[in-house]
Every structure is written in C-alpha cells, then in structure tokens.
Amino acid sequence: MSTNGPGSEAESERTDRADRVDPNERLEGSDADAGEVPAIDEGRYLYCIVQVETGNTEDADSEGDPSAALDTTGVDGEPVSVIVEDGIGAVVHACDGIYDSADLAQVRRWLVRHQTVVDEAGQAFGTPIPFQFDTILRGDDERVREWLHEERETLERALSGLADHWEYRVEVVERDPIDDATLIERDERLRELDAKIGDSGEGTAFLLEKKLTQRLKEVRAARRESLTADLEDRLADAAREVHSLERSPTASLDDAVTDESGEGGAGGNGVNDGETLCRLTLLAHEDAESEIGSILDDVAAEDGLEVRFTGPWPPYTFAPELGGGDESGDGQTRGREQRREP
Length: 342
Known about the structure:
The protein is α+β, with helices and mostly antiparallel strands. It is 36% helix and 21% strand. The strands form two sheets. Strands 1-6-2-5-4-3 form a six-stranded antiparallel β-sheet, with helices on both faces.
C-alpha cells in the first residue's frame, strides 16, 4: 500500500544504505555458495530511531558522548543500548552477523523480540521510527553516531512529523453475514432475475442464475464499499490519515508474530467468525484515541456488526523506510497488532 507518510518529504530522501546489510544479500564472487550470507566483523543491529530529551541521557562517557538508557533485552537476549547524537537516539545492540534461520519458530521469536524492543522504546521516548527486522549497520557505536549526524535533517523531519502520533487498526466484521434471500428481497434487479428464473426453461434459467450470482456479488461489494467510505469519512475527522487495507490479508511472518505473541490474527482476537467488511489503518495523535473509540462505538452499536480496534502501536505503516527493502520503492515497515479494547 502506498501512503503519504508522515512528512512525505522524509520518504523522498531515502537514507544512504551503503553501510547497512540487507539480510537477503549474498556474498559477491564466483566462489560464494548460494546459501552464504554477508560477513560482518562488527555491526550494530538497528531497532528504531527516537528523540532523546536532555533529561533522558545518562552521564557522558569518557569521550563526552552521552547515551540514553533503555532497560530491556533484544533479539537473542542481547543487551540493548541507545546511542545518542544531537538529541537523536538509535536503539541498537552489538552483533557480528545477521539473524537467518530455517526454523520458523526461531524467526518468530526474533520478530516478537524486535518489535517488543520498538514498543518499549516508544513507551520510554515517544513515537519511534522503526527499522525493519534484521537491519544492521556495519561498524561500532562511533559509526552509528556518524550516521546519525549525517542523516540528522532527515531523521529530525521524520521524528517531528510523527511526534505523539501512533498507528491504530480497525476491522469491521459482520457476525452473521446477510443471506442471499434478504439481498434479493431488498434489491429490485435481484427480484426481477429471481422471478424470471422461476418462469424460464432449464437453459435460460441457467444463464439467469449466473446473472443473479454476479448481481449478488455486486450488491455485496457495493454494500461493503458504502460502509467503508462512510467510516473513512467519519474517522478522517479524528485521524491524521486513514487508509484501507485488504479485507483478507495473505499469511506472512507478521501473522506468525501475532500468533506467537498470543494476539491472534488481524482482528486481534484470533476469531474468524463472520465476514470482514473492511480493514483500515489510521495514523492519529494520541489525544484523539478516545474520539476514535467513540466513533467506533457507534458502528459497533449497529445490529450484527463487531468492531475490532487494535493499538496504539508504533507507526510501522506510516514511517519512512530507514533500512531494508527496495530503496527506490514505497515499502514501509509493518509490525504486529497489539490488542486494545476501545
């Protein structure tokens, strides 16, 4: 999905990836095996970028460079640190290789831990700019400081554009989807086709039934589109950005992460009863959460509808890409949904 992200200007100035390691990259050279991964003598695994206030920094180290504290452990239990330059912090841990495994359960654990660190950084410092899983900067802490200094303007623009804003997901489900008979009763064209089928011979009736089926699909789609458009308009008054998502997302590692963390699927409760009418993602200021909840309460009050509201969580969908993916594309970082009752 393409979005006009937080300060779309920040998206137009992609950060230099020359020193970052793409986990899909393979060693160059004719002698490299197809399964080899990039070698790293020393690197820093990147979780996210945060704004660090003066009061959040500890005493300067021996070289006069302050670091901020984040009391958590990272992927594979590695100690996490926050490297600060010019008031901007990179949440990292030291590493000497990428995280690559054929064991899906292991990858799930890594993903959950990565995104837990990003969540905790958000709680400690405010809205973070997340990196994709397994983004690594070659070099030591000093190299990270150099990179933060080099990219200061872009990072400040992104952080200020997203300050105090969080991502929320909304799914509207019809618990008992309307049946064909009810739609036929409500739609004049469907009533006409249904009547003609009963009065026609076998060959003609077969063709009319195909038309009836197609019309039913059109009526259902129009009903979903109308509900989605109405909800988007109402939410747009409270949220900064509102975007539609696929009603039935394909399975991915992100889904595996939600399963591992006990959060369920896209709806946040692991229940697939009913028909999903729409799925939306919102970027909203934290002060607007109650207003959004009130709007969704009105929708949930409609007979037969259930609203699943998840968040607040870091703005994975709306943040500019800082690592991984296609440098020239519009890819954005996405994470697991965290269950929250509106």
